[in-house]
Write a structure and sequence with these properties.
This protein is α+β, with helices and mostly antiparallel strands. The chain has twelve helices and four strands. The relative contact order is 0.11.
């Protein structure tokens, strides 16, 4: 391993918050099959076996965390919650946070096709890195890192396990505190027909509580409800904001509508 590569891996170590005793494990975890095929003299294989192991380590660590954090959840609720955090999207987002794509070893074809940005490739690489940590330092250290990284995702996912969706969760809280249902005001609709963007405000009485955007009205309402829920969880109160104008009944829907 040359000095430039070693320096890059040490930089990634710092971002991950884990120091490898065997830095070659991290290098292996970042080696895509396309690169290994073009470089048969590598001292190790591609990262696919590590990905297999990392998936198992991640599931065990998350499952253990869920069992301890939610002692009253049923098996079905635990499975649903685990599936909401152990999937391609959050794994790829975590990989982007640590800039893992920049450290990947890719073959020429994968490089030119934008492999460093592919969600599936990033998610797989992140699992491989977790496996490298496990082989280097054992389960306890790896599980501690997984808990730190996934705790916010678990908290967010727990909402949709207990409630059908964010709109349902917010509606129940607001009706309990204010004795009225939230309404959703369509603020704007922009973009061409094939790529619309809707913006919606969640309204209580004369107050705009949160806004959200989406590709359709339902998605925008869910995002507005999600933002309101995050504020409620963070501040233990319903956020307050002045409303620019009173919505007309024709522009709003109640929280009970899907």
């Amino acid at each position: 391993m040359n000095e430039d590569r070693l320096r890059a891996l040490r930089e990634l170590e710092e971002q991950l918050g884990y120091h490898f005793e065997e830095i070659g494990l991290l290098d292996n975890a970042l080696t895509h099959r396309s690169f290994a095929n073009e470089n048969p003299s590598l001292p190790y294989r591609d990262n696919e076996r590590l990905e297999f192991l990392g998936d198992a380590v991640l599931e065990l660590a998350v499952s253990d965390t869920l069992m301890k954090k939610f002692p009253d959840y049923t098996e079905g609720q635990l499975s649903k919650l685990r599936a909401s955090v152990v999937n391609e999207q959050p794994l790829a987002e975590l990989a982007r946070r640590f800039r893992i794509g920049e450290f990947l070893l890719l073959g020429r074809g994968e490089e030119t096709s934008g492999g460093r940005m592919k969600p599936s490739l990033l998610a797989n690489a992140f699992e491989s890195v977790l496996a490298a940590m496990y082989l280097d330092g054992g389960f306890d250290q790896t599980a501690a890192i997984i808990r730190r990284l996934f705790e916010p995702l678990i908290e967010e996912g727990a909402i949709t396990v207990v409630y059908r969706d964010y709109k349902t969760a917010v509606q129940e809280i607001i009706q309990t505190r204010f004795r009225e249902a939230p309404r959703y005001l369509l603020v704007s609709e922009t973009g061409p027909d094939h790529d619309k963007c809707f913006e919606t405000s969640l309204v209580i009485g004369e107050r705009v509580i949160a806004t959200g955007k989406g590709k359709n009205k339902k998605e925008a309402e869910q995002q507005a409800a999600r933002m309101a829920m995050e504020e409620i969880r963070k501040n233990d109160t319903v956020p307050d904001a002045d409303m620019a104008g009173k919505p007309s009944p024709a522009q709003t829907t109640t929280g009970g509508e899907a």
